[in-house]
Structure formats: C-alpha cells, structure tokens
Amino acid sequence: MAILKSGKVVIILAGRHAGKKAVVVKTHEDGNDDKRFSHCLIAGIARGPRKVTRGMSKKKVEKRSRSMKPFVKYVNVRHVFPTRYQVDMDLKKAVDEADLLNEEKKVEVKKNLKKIFEDRYLNQKNVTSEKKAAGSNYFFQKLRF
C-alpha cells in the first residue's frame, strides 16, 4: 500500500528545501538503476506567494503571486513527510523525467511549473471537490511551527 501517490502534498525534511511543501509527481517504490532506494519526484515551492489582504487590487494580488519560485527534484522517501492533503494539479505532463537531465530543459520545466502554481493560486475558488480545495489552500500557505 503506497502512501505517496501522485498529487499528495508532502513536507520535505532534509536538504536545502527542508520545511518546504511539495507535491509528489511520481514515485519509484523499488528504486531504479540510478538510485537504488525508494524515491519520488517532487515539485514544490521554494519561495511562496506574498501575503495578500482583502483591500488589495486585482493587479496587486497578481503581482504578489508572481514572487513564487518552484523547484523540482528527486528525494528519498524517508526525507519526505506525507500530509493528509491531496492536490489535483496535473503535474505529470508538466514535469517530464527526461527533461530533468538537461539543465536548459529543467529551467523550462520550472517556468511551466511556475505558471501552473500561479494559475492554481489565483483560481483556488473553482476547484472540483472540497477536499482538493483544502489541499491546494494548505499547499500555498506558509508552514507554521
């Protein structure tokens, strides 16, 4: 029984992005030739959107949401903490594993991720189910501890 299915929101426990939230894109339960341990491909937010209040104009809200900075990487399953939240962003199409090997293509992948994350952040109201809405709301909030 796999807990880390694609779309699951996780918190990273180790490394440069420790304490940041990410979404599982793909999981390799038994590892592969390159990495002989169970690992998963995750896409997350290195720098979240800035604070928005009700009094701000639409233009200002959009500008503040543009500060998001995504990251994409492979992580050992032991270094992620699964949360109860699920997100329905379709990241499998945006993140192609072959593109991550080439540095220029990885930059393009990050740009696409930024667009997807911004779009979801600005349009959180029209999410299909309430469970997924709660997940995307949690994903974009700063981790409080």
First-residue to last-residue Cα separation? 30 Å
Mean pLDDT: 90
Secondary structure: helix percent: 25-40%
Strand content: 25-35%
Total domains, how many?
A: 1
Order of helices and strands: EEEHEEHH
- Unreliable stretches: none
In CATH terms, what is the fold-level topology? SH3 type barrels
Supply the helix-strand structural class.
alpha+beta
Count of alpha and pi helical runs: 3
Number of beta strands:
5
Under the CATH scheme, the architecture is Roll
Trace the largest sheet across and list its strands. 4-3-2-1-5
CA radius of gyration: 15 Å
Shape type: globular
CATH class: Mainly Beta
Strand count, sense and barrel status of the largest sheet are:
5 strands, antiparallel
What can you see in these coordinates?
The longest helix has 20 residues, at 103-122. The protein has a single domain, classed as SH3 type barrels (Roll). It is 27% helix and 26% strand. The protein has helices spanning 58-65, 103-122, 130-140; strands spanning 8-12, 21-28, 39-47, 69-76, 80-86. The protein has 3 helices and 5 strands. The chain is globular and about 55 Å long. By secondary structure, it is α+β, with helices and mostly antiparallel strands.
Question: What is this structure's SSE topology?
Answer:
Layout (H helix, E strand, L loop, with lengths): L7 E5 L8 E8 L10 E9 L10 H8 L3 E8 L3 E7 L16 H20 L7 H11 L5
Antiparallel strand pairs: 1-2, 1-5, 2-3, 3-4
